[in-house]
Amino acid sequence: MPASHSNPPLRHFLQFKDFSPEVIAHLFERSRVIKDRFKRFERYMPLQDRTLVMIFEKQSTRTRLSFEAGMHQLGGAAIYLNTRDTQLGRGEPVEDAAQIISRMCDCVMIRTFEQTIIDRFAEYSRVPVINGLTNEYHPCQILADIFTFIEHRGDIRGKTVAWIGDSNNVCNTWLQAAELLDFQVRVSTPPGYEVEPERAGLHSSSHFQAFADPMEAAKGADLVTTDVWTSMGFESENEARRRDFADWCVDAEMMGQAKPNALFMHCLPAHRGEEVSGEVIDGPQSVVWDEAENRLHAQKALLEYLLLGLVKD
Ligand code: CP
Ligand code: NVA
């Protein structure tokens, strides 16, 4: 029987809400097991002879490295494609590329611009497609971030996250996760940069509150998090954004509004002195390095799930 006959049904991870709370809980548990084995230098290579193709239309350090190293550690291989060097960069239709690429590999990760690009790719793909960041969402980041929260503070259900700054791809994904896993997100953006619930893919406003004042948003939070003022693809707005976001810097005073044991997270790369002060990101409440490392472990759990299903060992 061809190996593909025993594969789990085709699933994609294009947005956080593509998975049920049960599957997300499974991924957190598997991230823990896989991380633990890795730390003990135990080999775990269930993806031998499997290939991940990674398509990047934007720059990356963490996403590329964590997927490439993760696939290698699981016994498989990863191939890096930059759209500029492929026929996609010369206008080959996404639908055609999806059919061809997915006949030659077992999984595809894409970092691109509009979500519709990855949606179209997935529709024509024979293998699982993972969103490695789009303008709208960054689901792998939030898998790693919530796993990091759990490691430090336990279950996130019922907790409060304060998002300070741009209502971007990372913010939208926090909001989807809050609906799915039942925690609250308090968002403060400058005027004109507010959350667009439809673009964020929200069902309701039950897990989300907007605040004009970032100090208010930070009040009583278990976790304070932020991201760059200007995301990739929006560089032409850089100057205006620097002006508009000047009061949305997470500094020690803002952290002081949160619970005394609140954590600070940032998906990185960060700009010290813009969205976060050096004192906060390099301070005792910051868990940004764990967060970055956990991209590796969480994505290995994700690859295992997409290629092998609900592994229990
Ligand atoms: N946080 C994140 O996705 O980082 P990279 O852009 O370096 O991949
Ligand atoms: N919001 C940022 C995240 C980078 C990892 C961006 O899209 O550029």
How would the blueprint of this fold be written?
Blueprint: H1 21-39, E1 51-56, H2 62-73, E2 77-82, H3 94-101, E3 107-111, H4 115-123, E4 129-131, H5 139-153, E5 160-164, H6 169-181, E6 184-188, H7 197-200, E7 208-211, H8 214-218, E8 223-226, H9 238-244, H10 252-255, E9 263-266, H11 278-281, H12 288-308
Parallel strand pairs: 1-2, 1-3, 3-4, 5-6, 5-8, 6-7, 8-9
This protein binds phosphoric acid mono(formamide)ester and norvaline.
- Please provide the count of β strands: 9
CATH class of the largest domain: Alpha Beta
- Biggest sheet, in brief? 5 strands, parallel
Mean pLDDT: 96
**Full CATH superfamily name of the largest domain:** Aspartate/ornithine carbamoyltransferase
Radius of gyration: 19 Å
Strand percent estimate: 5-15%
Structural write-up:
The protein contains 12 helices and 9 strands. By secondary structure, the protein is α/β, with parallel strands linked by helices. It folds into 2 domains: 139 residues, Aspartate/ornithine carbamoyltransferase (Rossmann fold), CATH 3.40.50.1370; 151 residues, Rossmann fold (3-Layer(aba) Sandwich), CATH 3.40.50.1370. The strands form 2 sheets. Strands 7-6-5-8-9 form a 5-stranded parallel β-sheet. It has a 4-stranded parallel β-sheet with strand order 2-1-3-4, sandwiched between helices. Helix 6 links the parallel strand 5 and strand 6. Helix 2 crosses helix 12, helix 3 crosses helix 4 and helix 5 crosses helix 12. The longest helix has 21 residues. The radius of gyration is 19 Å and the shape is globular. 47% of the residues are buried. The N terminus is likely disordered. Bound molecules: phosphoric acid mono(formamide)ester and norvaline (NVA). Phosphoric acid mono(formamide)ester binds next to helix 2. The site of norvaline has 9 residues, from helix 6.
